[in-house]
Design brief:
Structural class: alpha/beta
Number of strands: 25
Shape: globular
Number of helices: 16
Strand order of the largest sheet: 15-16-17-14-13-19-20
Bound molecules: adenosine-5'-diphosphate
Distance between the termini: 60 Å
Length: 507
């Protein structure tokens, strides 16, 4: 196996950290400059990744175009599907390498990284099968017309992803695009680009033709902006912050290409008084502490009926205090945040919370020598948070749960709606009518009743309402997202279809 276990092809000093080159046209491509990749548990670099710019992005787009025109668009869906399923198997075969790398790169607990590998493999498996069911429609039109639609790949897709779930989000966006027949250029985040680079190597080793998948690590304003503005890109998918998403959309407006945007959330749990609050505790805790809350669909607000408020807050506080914090490789409940800058940002919100709300537990950096090097923050429960306060309305991207009591269903809906996001919501009730009513009222892409996030569910479409984004990832829907609809109408007069163009001209 050539690609996987040697991260770089550049001659480097044996004392130097491993260098992860870009993957373009099936080859490793080193760059003149490299980005230091920091281990968030140690606060020190442990690897370097290529710093791609316009030149490498141009090369990658050209390689993808070439592979699309000469190979991939002529490959049958069954064969593309088979290759995707081989990628899934190959990811599973390298599960431990991927999980350990993901944990060192992002800081997340090892068990969560292992789950991420499995989910990434599931995406390739799911779309590897689902693509064979992708079909157009036969359209009812005039009696002398046979009309139908074709779902065709766009051609070259650009994918820009964040640092929180590099492997999962890479697989989420690449697997449907590749299965549907596109060739891809992926720009991973500068903070955590390693597993997408490994993924590309693994996919090539598994048989994906060169150029079908290219990965150009680098900074957002360099490789990211170059990819977003590239006239050779036919579709853009972006996951990350609203500000960067708006830049990508503005670039897409100039080249007139469709964009899929996944821009985060401020998702509420709504706990009604008929539900035993203790039963909701494990998933409420998990939904705000998984990867230390650095998750776009984190359940970061708790709207709880006044009657069960005290009981639920007490149970959550006990659960928060019992969480183990430590380096991701020791597989604690909570690892460090991605960077010093992210920790500062989260601590800023905690200071605001301490001033204006009630800090029930947490509120700062955990004490002790074990936490001096990494970017750790305590899981924090803020109670009596007013709608309108920044910890209620803004995405913190840390392990911070904002609690607000309500007294009526209508008030719960008003509070749920009082942010500009609309990604997900959790509803906790035993009343089936209330569950359905709330599910329809909430302007969110997903509603979970008596669960949260449906255990990941690669089969379930995922997208945002309001300022949470545009378009849908995951599920069968994503195959539609990465294809365009072409209508074909054939005039069906007898004999006409047997006349060739040349014969027609001669006649
Ligand atoms: P976060 O706040 O989660 O770090 P960002 O939105 O800054 O998220 O980053 C998400 C991805 O977008 C990263 O790969 C980043 O490099 C990229 N990015 C940032 N700014 C731009 C930009 N102006 N154009 C294109 N990509 C960008």
């Amino acid at each position: 196996m050539s690609f996987v276990n040697v991260p770089a092809n550049v001659p480097v000093n044996p004392q130097a950290p491993p260098h992860y080159a870009a993957v373009i046209a099936g080859k490793r491509v080193p760059t003149a400059e490299w980005i230091d990749i920091v281990d968030p548990a140690l606060g020190r670099p442990f690897a370097r990744a290529a710093r791609c710019g316009t030149a490498e992005t141009d090369e990658a787009v050209a390689a993808a175009r070439d592979a699309y025109e000469h190979t991939w668009r002529h490959t049958a869906p069954a064969e593309r599907g088979r290759l995707c399923r081989r990628v899934a198997d190959a990811l599973r075969a390298e599960a431990e390498l991927l999980a350990q790398t993901e944990t060192r790169d992002t800081g997340k607990p090892l068990g969560q990284s292992r789950t991420d590998v499995d989910v990434a493999a599931r995406y390739f498996e799911f779309y590897g099968g689902a693509v064979e069911a992708l079909a157009g429609e036969t359209l009812i039109s005039r009696p002398d017309l046979l009309a139908f639609t074709l779902r065709e790949p766009y051609g070259v897709c650009g994918h820009i992803i964040p640092w929180n779930y590099p492997l999962q989000v890479a697989a989420r966006t690449l697997a449907p695009a590749l299965a549907a027949g596109n060739c891809c250029v992926l720009k991973p985040a500068e903070d955590a680009p390693l597993t997408p680079l490994l993924l590309a190597g693994i996919a090539l080793d598994a048989g994906l033709p060169p150029g079908v998948l290219n990965v150009v690590p680098g900074y957002g304003p360099e490789a990211g902006a170059a990819l977003a503005a590239h006239p050779g890109v036919d579709h853009l998918a972006f996951t990350g912050s609203r500000e960067a998403g708006a830049s990508v959309m503005a670039a897409a407006a100039r080249t007139i290409v469709p964009v899929t945007l996944e821009l985060g959330g401020k998702s509420p749990h709504i706990v009604l008084p008929d539900y035993d609050p203790k039963r909701a505790v494990p998933l409420i805790v998990e939904s705000i502490t998984e990867h230390a809350g650095q998750n776009c669909s984190a359940g970061s607000r708790l709207l709880v009926h006044a009657r069960v408020h005290d009981e639920l807050v007490a149970a959550l506080a006990a659960a928060f205090r019992a969480l183990r914090i430590g380096p991701g490789l020791t597989d604690p409940d909570l690892g460090p945040l991605i960077s010093a800058a992210q920790r500062e940002r989260v601590l800023g919100y905690l200071r605001l919370g301490a001033r204006d709300c009630v800090t029930v537990t947490g509120g700062g950096v955990p004490a002790g020598p074990a936490y001096e090097e990494g970017f750790y923050v305590q899981p924090t429960l803020l109670d009596r948070v007013d709608a309108g306060h920044p910890v209620f309305t803004e995405e913190i991207f840390g392990p911070v749960l904002a609690v607000t009591p309500f007294s009526s269903l209508e008030e719960a809906v008003r509070l749920a709606e009082a942010t500009s996001y609309g990604l997900a919501a959790g509803v906790w009730t035993r009343d089936v009518g209330t569950a359905h009513w709330l599910a329809r009222q909430l302007r969110t892409g997903q509603v979970f009743v008596n669960n949260y996030s449906a255990a990941g569910g690669v089969e379930l479409p995922f997208g945002g309402c309001k300022r949470s984004g545009i378009g849908v990832e995951k599920g069968f829907e994503a195959l539609r997202e990465y294809t365009r609809c072409k209508t074909v109408a054939i005039h069906t007069r007898p004999g006409e279809s047997t006349v060739s163009y040349e014969e027609g001209c001669e006649g």
